[in-house]
Fold LysR family transcriptional regulator.
Amino acid sequence: MKLDKLSRYDLNLLINLQVLLEEQSVSKAAKRLHVSQSAMSKTLARLRDLFDDPLFIRSAHGLRPTPRAENLQPQLASALQDIQQLIQPPKFDPATTQRDFKIVTLDSAYQLFLPSFFAPLMQAAPNMLLTFEDWSEHSLQGLAQGQVDLGITARENATDSRHQQDPLPHGVKFEHLLEDNFVCLVRKGHPILSKASWQISDYLALSHVQASCEGHDRWALDITLAKQNKSRRIVVQVPEFHAALEIARQSDLVFTCPQIFARHAVQNYPLTLLPLPIALDTVTYLLAWHQRYECDPGHKWLREMLYQHIREDQASTIKFDQKEK
């Protein structure tokens, strides 16, 4: 390794380049690095000289990376993470750590999996800080760029769904937490409950409330129905699951959602659970992170503890459901 040549370069420029790639804005990068916009513009000029490439082209939506910059991004992120790992302590002690972790999660997954997690976590790592944000259409990008430590989301297993596991960004790894089926929720006293049977015709005759995910409101269920020349009458669309619960509680609208979430909901809302009267592929909950954190001891400890807690917490419920079937 010819370190004499490497010493001629200001390696801080690489940190600036990584932030520019993540923010794609000179002003946002300057704010994040606590420097003036003028200083960041000068840094960008130095980077262009260093790589002999424009690196970014201005567009209506900010800076657009050139092909050279896009090719540099995965190598650069990996190299900086390796350097960060190099200077960090080799061991992780949860009892004394003061690390902060950012976790993005579906609102339904948060209510299902996390409230009972905080007591054992605080006992093991009393000074750790967890910051939670709602899962959105930008969350996968945040995982890929290292702005988020962990994500809890769901992916439909239907081959033609927009929410499959395959489209996850390059470098994002995941563990399966559990699989689930879809069911229906209606308010207690709903007229449909007085019927002797519950068929697909009954389901389609009712109006529905739909919760979106990652900016999409069309689910595998709707694709399956369309193949049969059928469709639901969705009259309300909301951005999160608990808003849908409130609407179903106070109206005759049907809310279709994962069974584990529905079981939790009927314990806290005056709702009744009904089976989904159409065959549908399952949904899988995932714990996701970027591969740059794969060997980080603190990150590994947290995700293993979270994974084990969720699996153990749901194990008895899953066994009960299997017996019911």
